Amino acid sequence: MRYSKDHKAETRQRIVKNASVLLREHGAAGLGVAELMKDVGLTHGGFYAHFASRDALIGEAFAHAIEQTTRRWRKQAESAPEGQRLAVIVDGYLTAEHRDDVGHGCALPSLGVDVLRGDPKTRKTFASRLEQMVDMMVEQIPGQSPEAARRDAIGALDTMMGALILAR
């Protein structure tokens, strides 16, 4: 039976979504292709119809995880008054629920070390998404020069990640 292109794209997205959760929970070394494919209801052999390699999947799953966090932050910021947007992001990040839900939480504390061990393409993808995350945070800091806002955004992100790592 043939499937539509949409079906293949939806299946690929489901694989990436599940992989991003497993990556955050177990790290790259703990991500097994056979287990992942079983979780999404497919065979291990079907993996290669969607990805050229395990590293390709890991790169996409890293990017998906960071994009999820960035979207969540943007939504939080949009609902807050100007001048309080960064504080709302920080307050939402530093919660017991976020600490305990590793699989759906921020990818940075969970996967930072794995990125260092990843292939060059994965590191480049991660760096690009991290830049987008920082840029989104910079947008939430009004009344400062771009350089000062960037410095504050990076400082806030570093502090948030460190606090979450220590809390976990």
- N→C terminal distance: 47 Å
Provide the succession of SSEs.
Answer: HHHHHHHH
**Rg (C-alpha, Å):** 17 Å
Could you list the spans in which at least 5 consecutive residues all have pLDDT below 50? none
- Chain-averaged pLDDT: 91
Helix content: over 70%
Question: Helix/strand-derived class?
Answer: mainly alpha
- What coarse outline follows from CA principal-axis ratios? elongated
The biggest beta sheet is recorded as: none
Number of strands: 0
Residue share in β-strands: under 5%
Number of helices: 8
Overview of this protein structure:
The chain is mainly alpha-helical and 168 residues long. Helices cover 71% and strands 0% of the residues. It has 8 helices and no strands. Helix 3 (54-78) packs antiparallel against helix 6 (107-117). The protein is elongated, with a radius of gyration of 17 Å. The protein starts with a helix and ends with a helix. The model has no long low-confidence stretch (mean pLDDT 91).
